[in-house]
Amino acid sequence: MNDSVRSLLKRRKVHLLAALVGGAAFFSLFNTAINFIITNVQLFLQSEGAFDIGTMTFAVGSLLLTFHLLPSEAYYVLGGMSFIATGLVYYKLRTNFRELEEKHAKGSSRFTTLQEIKNQYKAIPEKSKKYEGGGGVPISRYKENIFIDDSPVNNLWVGTTRSGKGEMGMFPMIDIYSRAEEKASMVFNDPKAELFATSKDILKKRGYHVEVLNLDNPLQSMSYQVLQIVIDAYEEGDMAKAEQYAKTISSMLYSDPAAKDKFWQDSASALCTALILGLCEKNIPDNKDKITMYTVANTLNELAAEQEDDGSGKMVTGLDKFFDSLPENHAAKLQYSTVKFASGAGQTVAGIFANAFDKLNIFTLTPIAKMTSQNSFDMKKVGFGKSVLGRITPLSRIHMTFPDGEVSVRSDENGRFSIPHDKSLQKDAEISMRVEPEAKKNKKKKQQEEEEKKVPAEPLFLKVKVTQIEEDTGEVSFVEVERQNDKEGNAITIEKIEHFDKPIALFMIVPDYDSSLHVIASLYVKQLYTELARAASASKGGKCNREVIFILDEFGNMPAIQDMGSIITVCLGRKIRFNLVVQSYSQLEKVYDKEWKTIFDNCANLLYILTTSHDTAEDISKRMGERTIASQSRSGGTLSMKKNKTEGTEGRRLLTPAELLQLEEGEMVVIRGIKRQDKERKKIKAYPIYNKGKTRMKYRYEYLADQFDNSVSINDIDIECEHADVNLKELVYHFHESEAKKAKAAMESADSPEHETEAEEKKEATAESEPKPLEPIPYRNLPARKKLSDHAAYDMALLMGEKHEFCTEESFNELSVQGLLELTERLDEEKLIRANVFPSLKETIERNETRYNAESQKGEVEDAKQTG
C-alpha cells in the first residue's frame, strides 16, 4: 500500500463517509431482506399450497425501495439499528486507521504558521520606506514584508562567530529602528567597528546624531570622563550618591567572578573608592580637572611608594597622610580603613596596593588618560534631549509653562532642579516659571517670622524668551523678559536650557585584541543607565522621553555590568530595552555567575541563529517542546512476504539539538516567552517560530547593500576629538605641594592685615551679588565679625540646614565662637549638615587659637623687654 493511499485512509472525513455508507448499506440490506421474505411468503400463501419456485420475486429495485410492508415502528427500530451500525463502523475505522499522534499523548507543541505570524506581529516594508509607530526586533519575514515585535521586551540573541548574526540580525535592527516614525536612540557594543562604519552615513541621513566611544583608537573618539557622575553628585552635596557611584566604578573595575578569595579585589576596590572620594574632597570646586582616573592611578603610585617611620617604629605611607588630612568621618577615610586593618602584615598592604594599581594601569596609557580626562557628550541626551536646569529655594514646587503645555517638578534639598520634558520649542518662544509659596507647618514663631520676611506672599514668577537654539548641541540662548516677587536669596535662577531633538546612535568600539579595555565600555553602559534612570525618576511618568535600545553585540565578552540582573528586570518600565548577543549560555554563566539566570529569564524573546555549544542547543531544543508522531515496526523473515506490522506513538522534539547545530544560512528559530495576545488582543499560544523556506531571513547584502555599504572602513572616517591636546602633567595632583600651598595661603591670610581687609571687602561685595556657599569662618574674625547680609545668611542656611532657627541674620550674628561651635556639633550629631562642616570648623578654630596664643605670648615677651 503506497503512502498516498495510507494517508487517505487516515483522514477523519474518509472515516465518516465510509461509516455513513456502511450504515446506509446496513439499512438497505435489512430492508431488502425483510421485503423479500414478506413478499414471497405472501405469494406462497396465495398459491394455495402449490408453491413454484419460479413464482418467487427477485426484483431488487422494488424490494430495496419498498417501505410499506411493515408498520412504521419497525422502520424506526431498523433506523436505530442502522445508526448504531454507523457509529460502530466509524469507531472501528478511527481506532484502526487514524493518525495516532492526534491525541498528543507524547507532546502537543508545533511551529507557528505564517497566517498566525501575520495576525500576531506588525508588518513593515522590508527596506527604505518610513512606517508608523516605533521600531522593533525582526521576528520573521514574507515576500517584501518584515514582521517585528514592537512590544516592550528584552531579547537574547544566540549566534556564534561567523554565524551571520550581524548580517541577519544587527544591521536589519539598525535599519528597522532608524526608519520608524518614532525613532529610538540606540547604543551599540561594536567590537570590530563594522556596525559604525557601515551605518554612520545612513543614520545621519535619517536624522540621527552619531557618537563614537573608540577604545581601539582613543584619539579618534568622543571624550568620556568616567568620574563625572561622581563629581556632579559631590558638587550637589549628595555624598551618599557620590560614594555609591564611586563604589560602582571600583566594583566593576575589580570584578572577577572566578576569584575564590574576594579579599584582594574587595580591598583594592575599597582603596580605589577612597582615592576617588578623597580627590573630590581636595579638588572641588577649584581643581575639578584633577579628578580623573589617571589622577587616581598617579596618586596611588606616588603616595603608596612613600614610606617613613613615624617615630614609634610604625611605617607610615603617603596614602596614610593623604587620608589623615581629610575631615573626620569622611567617606574616603571609612573606605581606606579596609587597607588600614590589613596594615599588620606589610606584604598584605603591598599586595593590596599592587592589585589596586594593576587595574588602574589602563588609565595611565596616554590615549586612555586623555580620553577619560573630560566629557564631550552629555549621556542624558540619549533618553532626554530636552531639559531645564536651575536653582530655587530647596524643596519648592516649580511649574514651568511651554507654548504647548506645562510640566512641574520639585527642587532638591540643595535647591537644584532639573526638568526633563517633551515639549516643543522654537526661536522667540517664551517659557514661564512659577513657584507657589508653601504653607509652613510646625515652625517656631521666630523662624516663621523670618521666613515670612524672606518668602513673598505672591508666587515667584520668571519669564524668558528663546533667542537661539544650536542644532548640533541643543544649547538654548535666552533672555529674561519678566520677573516678579523676587527677593534677595529667594530668586528663580535658570542655569541651562537644552533642546536637543535628535535621536542618538552611540557606538562603543572595543578592541578584540585587548580585553583589559572592555571594562570601560561596561562602565559606560552602567553609568548611562544610571543617568537615564535618575532622569526618568524625575520626569512625568517615570520613563525616558525617547525610547532607548541597547544592542550589545558580544555581550558575553564584556566585563560584568554591576546589577545587570536588577537593571534588566525593571528597565522596560523606563522605556529602555536590551538586546543581548551571546555565542552560548556558558558565556553568560561565566561572567555573571548565579545572576545569569535572572538575565536570561527576563529576555522574553530568544532568537537563535547558530551555536557550537551542544548544551545550548540541548536547552533550546527542550524549550521548543515535543510533538507526538506515529511509529511503525514490522517483524518476520528476511524473504517472507508476510510481515507482522505494528503502529505506536512517540514524542519527538520540534528540532533536535543536532538539527539546531545544522541550521542553514538565513534560518532562525524564535522562542517567545510572554507573547499571549495577537494584534487584536485575542488570546493565543506562543508556539515557536521556525523561519525557513519562504520565511527565511535575508542577509544585509541581499537587500540592504545599497544603504549599508560594508566596504567603508573606520580608518576612512575622521572622528572629532576634543581631548587630543590635553596635557597630562596638568592633571597630576601633588598632595604635599597642594597642602603646603594651602598652609602658606592660610598663614598669609591670617598674618596680613592688608590681605584681611581686602578679603572682608570682597566678602561684603560678594554677599550683595550672586549667592556662594560660605566656608567655616576663621577664628580671628568670629568675635567681631560684621553682620551677614540676607544673601550670606541664606547661604549659611544652605550649608547647615534650612530648618533651624539659628539660620537667620539676627540669630546667627549673635552667636559667640563657642556657641557657633556647639551648635554646629549638635547639628553634626543629628546628621543635619554635611559631614565635613563641623570637623573643618573645629580644626580651623583650634589652629587659629594656637597661633593666636603663640602670638599673644610673643607679644607679652616683647612688651616685657620694652618695659625692662
TrEMBL record:
What compartments host this protein? Cell membrane
Bias-annotated ranges (Basic and acidic residues): 428-440, 752-773
Q: List the SUPFAM superfamilies hit by this protein, alphabetically.
A: P-loop containing nucleoside triphosphate hydrolases
According to the record, the signal peptide region is none
- Superkingdom classification of source: Bacteria
The record's section on CDD domains has: TrwB_TraG_TraD_VirD4
Q: Where is this region: Disordered?
A: 428-454, 626-651, 743-780, 846-868
Entry keyword annotation includes Transmembrane: yes
Question: Is this entry keyworded Transcription?
Answer: no
Regions of biased composition (Polar residues) lie at 629-638
Q: Which UniProt keywords apply?
A: Cell membrane, Membrane, Transmembrane, Transmembrane helix
Listed GO CC annotations: plasma membrane
Q: Where are the transmembrane segments?
A: 16-38, 50-67, 74-93
Residues in TraD/TraG TraM recognition site domain copies: 548-664
- Membrane topology according to the record: Multi-pass membrane protein
Family per record: Belongs to the VirD4/TraG family.
What name does the UniProt record give this protein? Type IV secretory system conjugative DNA transfer family protein
The organism encoding this protein is: Alkalicoccus luteus
